[in-house]
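PROTEIN DESIGN WORKSHEET
SECTION A - STRUCTURE
LENGTH: 131
TOKENS:
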């Protein structure tokens, strides 16, 4: 696999999935549709912060959550990336819930994370509660 990657132009890692410039993840194509190259580069950078969870890909996860929350995908990714865990309430305070996730709440915003195989917390979703 790595020999093939060495021959490809560019690549990046995205949670167990190696995405190359020529990869055909239809969800990534949909996620980046209509964005300019600099925005696509920004999207790629943010994808490394996310976990696919039960979705087919990280891009699929982001598309679904952004659409359900009625947000532009890049704006959604920026908000999740800029969520400041400092001062947020973590549930549970230590460890993870029964589903291997933890929730950070700050004001009306929340960020749900899950550790990857290396113990690094990856974003499952981001949201805002409007009560």
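SECTION B - SEQUENCE
RESIDUE ASSIGNMENT:
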């Amino acid at each position: 696999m790595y020999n093939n990657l060495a021959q490809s132009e560019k690549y990046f890692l995205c949670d167990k999935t190696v995405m190359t410039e020529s990869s055909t993840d239809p969800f990534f194509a949909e996620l980046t549709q209509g964005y300019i190259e600099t925005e696509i580069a920004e999207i790629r950078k943010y994808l490394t912060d996310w976990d696919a969870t039960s979705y087919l890909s990280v891009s699929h996860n982001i598309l679904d959550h952004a659409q359900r929350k009625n947000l532009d995908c890049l704006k959604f990714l920026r908000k999740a990336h800029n969520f400041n865990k400092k001062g947020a309430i973590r549930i549970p305070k230590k460890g993870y819930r029964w589903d291997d996730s933890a929730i950070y709440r700050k004001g009306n915003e929340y960020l749900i994370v899950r550790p990857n195989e290396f113990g690094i917390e990856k974003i499952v979703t981001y949201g805002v509660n409007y009560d």
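SECTION C - NOTES
The chain has one domain: 2-128.
The longest strand covers residues 121-128.
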